Amino acid sequence: MDDRQAPPHRAVITVEGVGQLLAELATRGHRVLGPTARDGAIVYDDIGAVSDMPQGWTDRQDAGRYKLERRDDDALFGYAVGPQSWKKFLHPPMETIWRSRRTESGLAIDAPIAVSEKFAFIGVRACELHAIAIQDRVFLEGPYVDKAYGVRRQDAFIVATNCAVAGGTCFCVSMGTGPKAQSGFDLALTEIIEDDRHVFLVEVGSDAGADVLAHIEHQPAARMDVIAADTIIAHTAANMGREMETTGLKELLQGNLTHEQWEKVADRCLSCGNCTMVCPTCFCTTVEDHSDLAGLNAERVKEWDSCFTQDFSYIHGGSVRKSTSSRYRQWMTHKLASWIDQFGTSGCVGCGRCVTWCPVGIDITAEAAAIRAAPQKSSVVADARA
Amino acid sequence: MHGLDVTLEEHPFFAGFSPDQNRIVSGCARNHKFDAGHYLFREGDPANEFFLIRHGRVALEIVSPGQAPVVIATLGKGEIVGASWLVPPYRWMFDARAVELTRAIGIDAACLRGKCDADAQLGYEMMKRFLPVLVKRLNATRLQLLDVYGKR
Amino acid sequence: MAPPDARLEEPHTTDAFVPDLYRVEAVRRELSDTVTLELAPISGTRPAYAPGQFNMLYAFGVGEIAISISGNHESGNRFIHTVRDVGAVSGAICRSAPGDVLGLRGPFGVGWPVAAAEGSDVMFVAGGLGLAPLRPAILEVLENRARYDRVAILFGTRNPADMLFRHQLESWRQRLDIEVEVTVDHADPDWHGHVGVVPGLIPHVMFDPAETVAFVCGPEVMMRFTATALTAAGVASERIHLSMERNMKCAIGICGHCQFGPDFVCKDGPVMRYDRIAEILALREI
Lengths: 386, 152, 286
Hints:
B: globular, C: alpha/beta, Elongation Factor Tu (Ef-tu), domain 3, 2 domains, six-stranded antiparallel beta sheet
């Protein structure tokens, strides 16, 4: 008979407990990454202690707007998502995929061995858990696997955070991706700040999570703690900054590929690609080949790419998507429609980053609504049905 | 003339013509045989006859001074040669050369124009047959213009 | 927390991205800007492939491009590729000499449904260099000639001088059990063949449209016109197969470049059924 106690499904820890959690994960060989305030934004970076975290900060977000502001409390997670996502660690912006060198017999290629840094992510939002799950489908569940991604992914320890505030551009409720973390985490925290206490309700999502929790100070969760957390999450859900109607959205967009709205949005769109860089699911990459001046060594580097560049669709003779309208259409229809054909899920998690970080404030929810308000049906589809 | 009736009916261009209409058109028709290298017509000549190829191959050519003739299109069995007879001033714009032994039905243009003017139904049937051929050729020429196999 | 169902049992390398090394065994100049290379693996045997699939060829330090396989199994332990010099990478590959080493990943993609066409009439419609990706399918059909009904090869090219695989076309034409028609866009009077575009040949050789399967490869505009002409001749759009081209980087469906509507040309194509892509094919800048 196993006399060890079953791990508690829920527990309560303090701010000091969060510090212990960071230390425990570091002790276990993880590279502990979490939110920190830097350059006027919340960014994910190495953190060693609670003092590295953006305690007492919040953000104000709107289309094309982002600003950090002080809170009147000491909340650790009192803001929504910043410009970066965990994508930059799991699917790095640049990665050397192999090196080659000239040899006497011609050519040799050396593939680097994928080394895991054993990431621990602190403060992963529900939308971001979904984004990670979506990238898992892209990189791990197709006929070919990106093994370097898989290695990094497999070893990652994930501490989720249920959002206590909704950002001005958030619409996870519309996308069914938040604000509560449902799965895909080792531990999930809900920050509870009341008059006389500042604690975190901890939910255990895995055996690894239970084991880590066992090594930090915690109390059993009381019913009132669970109710307090649920109330916070419900409040967040009720205060989304944006919403997007998703019913029939795939068919709507795929049936309106020649809608005049694509030209209208192109009048504003700068083709800068910011939306693709900040999007936690955008996965496109290109490759660059470099060689030394002597022509003896070369390497191939995989880099994030954006469907907003001319080069992205280049075939011999020129770019397939020369106009901005065609590139915006590619991005948005891929994200909200053809992604479903390809991966069985929408590519949008409602995090709002593309809205916030668009320099001209283009809002994907408004673009979708504009087409829904006046569907035109692409002439091709209409012809086919005639 | 009975023999030509049959030949007309067999040509896809006249598929669906009534026996009466066939008889009317036959009255303007005669058989031709062009040996390889012989011309059906030349640029600038009056377009007083057009041709339905029964078999063989005809090249439409255009010539620039000092250069070899350029073949614009070839036409074969079942196709028609010549549209200039339909529009004033009724003069050929190209040379039409038999690439190989070619047998064709020639239709007298003035004769057919007269019969079409007199019988609007016949004229309409002719137009319904001619126009798709012309549009198809125009489309093909547009594709040819793109030079799709060249380096872009 | 680990991803569900992670398939990491194999060694931890990004091996789908890593080329194997192949030696250039022979180079044959086809046209002024086009060569055919025979590539043999430096070690081991080349993987099996299906007609219509492609490999990613890497020129040292310059880059990698997708090139269809243009030979058949008679090439033994070699891959045959016909490459046109249209850019930095294709130029470097075209300039390679016997003994040089290239990187090669593949084969990738969905090829021609050669076996599924058994019992049918088969019409191959090629434009320009589009004959190269069709060649393995043509060779396979001819090798199993008895399994097919009537077979025709329609080939359109720019002019008689720029005719790819001219000798092969001539030898195919000698056979009594296939029909071969060649047309050129431009010719001088010495050319005794067809002048005009390749869709124009379709009515000349159309068999029973209900029994015809068409394999089409060439520039996209040529394929659009050809598919329209085939449909007009009565061939059902699900019996028409086109080989599509889009920018390719990874060839394994994870870099996003070759998207064509909902499909990735690298893994859902390059050979695609016309009825599945007709709507998208008609759109600009898709």
